[in-house]
Amino acid sequence: MGGFEIRNATPADARFMGDMLVEAANWNVTRARPRVAILDDPNVSRYIAGWRRPGDFGSVAIDSHGIPIGACWGRLFPPNAPGYGFVAVGVPELTLGVNPQWRAQGIGRALLKAITRQARAAGHSRLSLSVERANFAHRLYVSEGYITVESGESSDTMVATLR
Ligand SMILES: CC(C)(COP(=O)(O)OP(=O)(O)OC[C@H]1O[C@@H](n2cnc3c(N)ncnc32)[C@H](O)[C@@H]1OP(=O)(O)O)[C@@H](O)C(=O)NCCC(=O)NCCS
């Protein structure tokens, strides 16, 4: 595999970001569901529906040919329809996914760092997310400064404070 670069996500990235949302939902391959079933599930599709809405921001990793290989983005949810990682009004929730053949090469971490820069530039002071504790992504988030603020049966809600 060659190198990669990271650029800001555009409205034209919606389809690819849908693919990455499916990767995130299917992180545990023993419980994987078909793309259409995931994107038909409003609890999941709300993370990408209507991309890019006002307030949305995202980063896309591309290979040396400009092909998208990973994405991370933030979206705001209202308190009456919170996402899984909702902590407060005005705190964006993150989604992160990398194409399977590109994993374990630093792309996920680079995307997390890029989205942090974007969030800071947009004036945000915190980012949140929900992750299952069994997903090694949990350790990635801890190593990037995310702290568990709420624990469910198998998932944690985590928050990063941006300095
Ligand atoms: C989670 C995910 C985004 C991480 O992206 P990635 O590009 O593979 O991650 P990185 O290469 O940046 O690695 C981050 C850390 O995780 C570790 N890691 C990578 N792959 C691993 C694996 N299969 N098992 C355990 N740890 C792993 C790396 O060692 C790295 O730590 P290090 O920098 O100390 O070495 C990616 O694996 C993915 O898309 N998974 C499915 C979707 C998902 O789970 N999204 C998150 C939902 S909350």
The largest sheet, given as strand count, sense and whether it forms a barrel, is:
4 strands, antiparallel
The small-molecule ligands in this entry are:
coenzyme A
- Tell me, rounded to a whole number, the average pLDDT: 97
Structural class comes to: alpha+beta
CATH class: Alpha Beta
Radius of gyration: 15 Å
Strand order of the largest sheet: 1-2-3-4
Distance between the termini: 34 Å
The CATH fourth-level homologous superfamily:
Gcn5-related N-acetyltransferase (GNAT)
What is the total domain count? 1
Tally of contiguous helical segments: 5
CATH architecture: 3-Layer(aba) Sandwich
Q: How much of the residues is beta strand, in percent? A: 25-35%
CATH topology: Aminopeptidase
Helix % is 25-40%
Shape: globular
The total count of strands amounts to: 7
Uncertain spans: none
Structure commentary:
This is GNAT family N-acetyltransferase. Pfam families: Acetyltransf_1. GO terms for molecular function: acyltransferase activity, transferring groups other than amino-acyl groups. Residues 4-163 form the N-acetyltransferase domain. The structure is a single chain. The protein is of the alpha+beta class. It has a single domain (4-161), classed as Aminopeptidase. Helices cover 26% and strands 28% of the residues. It has helices spanning 14-25, 35-39, 42-45, 107-121, 137-143, and strands spanning 4-8, 57-63, 68-75, 93-98, 126-132, 147-151, 155-161. The strands form two sheets. A four-stranded antiparallel beta sheet has the order 1-2-3-4, with helices on both faces. Strand 2 and strand 3 form a beta hairpin. The longest helix is centred in the C-terminal third of the chain and has 15 residues, at 107-121. The radius of gyration is 15 Å and the shape is globular. The protein binds coenzyme A. Coenzyme A (COA) binds next to helix 1, strand 4, helix 4, strand 5 and helix 5. Coenzyme A is lined by residues 23-24, 27, 96-98, 103-109, 129, 131, 135-137, 140.
